[in-house]
Structure of Ymf57:
Amino acid sequence: MMLKFKIVTFNFFRFVQSGLYVDFFLKKLVELFVKNFFIYAAQFLGEKYMIEFLTKKVIDSSIFNTNKIINLGDLFYSQYFISLLSILFLSLSLFNVLILI
């Protein structure tokens, strides 16, 4: 009588033997966590911290230190930025001319 219990079918035994599909749910949970962790960790750790904080800190400290060294405190930042851009582009054009020769 116990072996032929009609409520418990063969599919139930297959379900129990598979660990109640714990491996499926565990796989989906780990996949969701790993995917979100590796995608969003790169954004938050890489872009947010590195680009916004470190570059701002590096740029601000370099401007402040060069202003102290060169004594450009009386210039506006826009004039300083334009002069830096002009020096950069002039050096790049000179470098390109030297490569072509």
